[in-house]
Structures are given as structure tokens and as C-alpha cells.
Design a protein that fits this description.
Blueprint (H helix, E strand, L loop, with lengths): L1 E4 L10 E4 L9 E10 L2 H6 L17 E9 L11 E5 L8 E5 L3 E3 L6 H4 L3 H14 L7 E5 L4 H12 L3 E6 L2 H9 L4 E4 L5 H8 L5 E6 L6 H6 L1 E9 L13 H6 L2 E4 L2 H7 L1 H16 L7 E6 L3 H9 L6 E5 L9 H16 L5 E3 L12 E4 L3 E2 L2 H11 L4 H4 L1 H7 L9 H6 L1 H8 E3 L5 E11 L8 E13 L5 E11 L7 E9 L1
Parallel strand pairs: 8-9, 8-11, 9-10, 11-12, 12-13, 14-15, 16-19
Antiparallel strand pairs: 1-2, 3-4, 3-6, 3-15, 4-5, 5-7, 17-21, 18-21, 20-23, 21-22, 22-23
Helix pairs in contact: 3-4, 3-10, 9-10
The protein binds NADP nicotinamide-adenine-dinucleotide phosphate.
Amino acid sequence: MKALLCQQHGLPTTLVFQDTPSPIPAADEVLIEVKACGINFPDALIIQDKYQFKPALPFSPGGEVSGIIIAKGEKVTQLKTGDRVLALCGWGGLAEQVTVKADRVFPMAPGMDFITAASTLYNYGTSYHALKDRAILQPGETLLVLGAAGGVGIAAVELGKLMGATVIAAASSDDKLELCKEKGADHLINYTSQDLRARLKEITSDKGVDVIYDPVGGKLAEPALRSIAWKGRYLVVGFASGEIPQLPFNLPLLKGCSVTGVFWGSFAEREPRNSMQNLGELLQWLRTGKIKQSIYKIYDLEHGAEAIQDMMDRKVKGKAIVKIGNWVEEPTASSSAAKKETAAIKEVTTTGPLMIENIAALKNYTGKKIGTSDWLTVTQEMINGFASATLDFQWVHIDIEKAKAWMPDGKTIAHGYLSMSLASHFLYQMITIKNVRSFINYGINKARFITPVKEGSRIRMHATLANVEEQDNGAVKLFLNCEMELEGAEKPAYAAELISLVM
Ligand SMILES: NC(=O)c1ccc[n+]([C@@H]2O[C@H](COP(=O)([O-])OP(=O)(O)OC[C@H]3O[C@@H](n4cnc5c(N)ncnc54)[C@H](OP(=O)(O)O)[C@@H]3O)[C@@H](O)[C@H]2O)c1
């Protein structure tokens, strides 16, 4: 196979494009035919032997790929050859084939293309973990993103907006800031030509910034930290400037703020459930067009070194991608379904979640309609995934050929519990309660599966807050009357009283 090889440590110009033996998957690995490889900052560090992982020479850089599984080890059960996947391989991705541990490989969402898939996990995964889990960013707060047009930076701008923050994007050129504006940034600071502290004072009317997302480090860190608000959170994400800042310890004391480390790779390893939850939410947002990675340029494998060099030269806005092989994306049935779904969602999209200030304010909504979710298409992929998770493989759900022959309209039917389990996802779209630690499912009353949901149909949920019950420990129980509407059907797919516990 062809690969871009690091035979001796050095700058991108030392990488060589040549033939090398194909790797063989170990028992717990899959072999992926690589279609695209996302370029990330560690690629620049790993070839110079400046990264925390030090693969033996020769090796290919490239830690994030998409492609097709072409072989697998005997212990791999959840994935099969032919699956379209995205994967975090660490290195080895700038090659026609790469082996990856199965637990670092994820099926591509229906309708997702290889370029999007290779640019998703790393940037969005890092920035979502930083903003959601480390900063606990709240709607209405201010968020400053440094290096805002870089890979993780631009993802933070987009996600910050989606999470309801006022986003201040800071970067080294007006050209880069233009992209941040397109992605929804509310305020722009060019830190080459403007004074960062003075601009932040002006923008926040002296209050300071609630959350600072810093993937750059170096000279920007201290003026940024000096501009933080009372109880602010400073996220230490990376040191793209090459300089680890030394910060005066008196600043966190005076500001009552916290300086918080972000290490997405370790988070994914130590807290796999939370990480999978985050990835699921991100993939859903990608699928419905709420977030969209900005691709700077697509390079071919032979010129992959240029992609790394461009990133090191601060030329890249968003993400550089290396395309491997001369493939053309085949439009799949599911991709056109996903496009239709996105278009339809655009027509009917809810105006965003209902924002409730705090637990006490919930009572004001008793007896009122909370809202209606976006439409969601129930695909065969979802039905199959549900069957695998619940071990319920009845043919009416998963056997397309039998369904064609025997079902009245030739379609499989989703598990009733599948529609039911989508309730949390829909509720999450409809309601955001500020200043709460958790919002969890507590129980279900009077659940009925009324109309069967056939593969390819669209559902959405309507919810009314029937009652709010205060608990001794300060938590409240919400009783929500929920109805899952099935497009084109007279009666709902599912109805129930959901009970949620909010603390
Ligand atoms: N903690 C984690 O879990 C985690 C995860 C992913 C990435 N990271 C780290 O986050 C940092 C950014 O990664 P990325 O993939 O977003 O990189 P990127 O796309 O290259 O973005 C980095 C940004 O930093 C700015 N920068 C300032 N000085 C620079 C220099 N000397 N060389 C290059 N860029 C410089 C550039 O913006 P301006 O030109 O506008 O200043 C650039 O757009 C890296 O240090 C990476 O290791 C950490």
C-alpha cells in the first residue's frame, strides 16, 4: 500500500510518500481502507517526536480517519467488513490502510460522507467535552474562544452558540475572523491589531468573560485570564503557540475563578459512557445540520505533508483533510433520506428549547404546553441498532426481505420501545432548565404504543407539563404528558406520562 511515512523525526518536508507493507489486524482490531484523514495538531508534534505518544519509526502520522472495514480480528464482534466507519487511530491514518482497536471505531451515521466523518470526532469531541463537562457553560454566559478559526476553536465557536452563549471569537487575522462570524460569533477580536484586554472590557461592559477556551497558550493567556469574570472558568485546552504560559496564582484567587484542564483523550478512556453520550449528541447535531465542520482544503495523500505544514504555518481555517484514493462518494439511500430529513426539519424546526431560569420557575409552567420537538426519521439503521442493543431480533423489525414479502406495505416496523426511548432526546430539544445539576428520567406511567412506526416514517413529540411535585431534598418531580406524533397518521405512535427528576 501507499503511505506517507515518517522515517526520521523532523518537519513535514522529511515525510516520504512510498510503498509499505499493509498492516495486519490483531485479534481486537479492524483493518480500515482509509478514505479520508483529518489533520490535527498532534500530527505536527508526533513527526517531530514532541508528542506524548512516540510510535516506533517508520510510521505514518494521521490520527483521525474515515473509511471502510476490509478485515477484522477474531475477537471483534460489533463491527463487520463493509461497515463505513470513523476512527481514532492515533497515527497511521495517512496511508491507504490502517489497523485500529475496535473500541476506537464508530459506525458512520446514515447519510454522513467520508470527508465529514474524518473531521468530526477530534475537534467537536474536544470542544463539546470542554464546554459541557469542564466549563458547564450556561445559556446567556459569555464565552471567549482564542485561536477561534483553528480546528478545535471553530468547533467551540459553533457549539458555544448552539449552547446559548454569547460568543467572542479571537484570532490573528480579519480573514480568520470572517469565518468565525459565519459560524455565529457575536463579537470579533483581532489580537494582532487590537488590545485583547481593552476589547474584552468594552464587550463585556467591564464584567469580564464567564468562560475562556484557550487552545493557544503563550502570550495571550495572561491578558485573557486577567479579563475573566467573577467565578469564571479558564479552559486549558492546548499550546498551539508552542509556549506553555506561566500564570500568576494570585489571579484565580482575586477573580474567584477556576483554571480547568481539558484532556479529551483521557476523558474518553476514563469515562467511556459520558464520552459516547457526547458523541451521540454531536452526531445527531451533524445529521440535522445544526453543526457543520468547515473544511479549509482537501489534499491528496502524496501532498499530505503540505496539509501539516499549512497547519503549522497558521494558514488553515477550520480543518485540513487528506483524501486517500480516487473515490467518489456514492449517494446512498440513507444519505438522501437524511437530506430530506434536514430539509424538512428546517421547515418545521422548533425555535429552540424553552429556557426556564431555575427549578423554582418550573411551577409557572404547570398545565402549559412545553413545546414540540423537531421531526426525526426512524431509519432501518436505527431499528437494527436498537435490535442489537436489546437483543430483540424479531423479523418484523430487521428482516427487510421478509417484510417486503409479508408486511402489508412491505416495510419493517420499529420496536415500540424504540419510539419510547426517543422521548429523552426529544425532551432535550424542547426544554432547558438553567442552574440544575441533573435532569433524569424517573419513570413512565400509562404508556401505550398506539400506531406502529414503519421504517422511514417521521415522528416528533409534543409535551405538556401536567404537574410539578417538590421533594424534601429540594429536587422536583416533573410529570409530563407526552405524545409522539407519527407523520400522516391520525393517532399518535406513542403516548405516556413521563416522570423526570430535576435537581
Ligand atoms: N486538550 C485536548 O484534549 C486537546 C484536544 C485537541 C487539541 N488540543 C490542542 O489544541 C491546540 C489546537 O489544536 P487544533 O487542532 O485546533 O490546531 P489548529 O487548527 O492549528 O489551530 C490552532 C490555532 O492556534 C493559533 N496559533 C497561535 N500560534 C500558533 C502557532 N505558533 N502555530 C500554530 N497555530 C498557532 C492559530 O490561530 P491564530 O493564527 O488565529 O492565532 C491556529 O488557528 C493544539 O495545541 C492541540 O494539541 C488539545
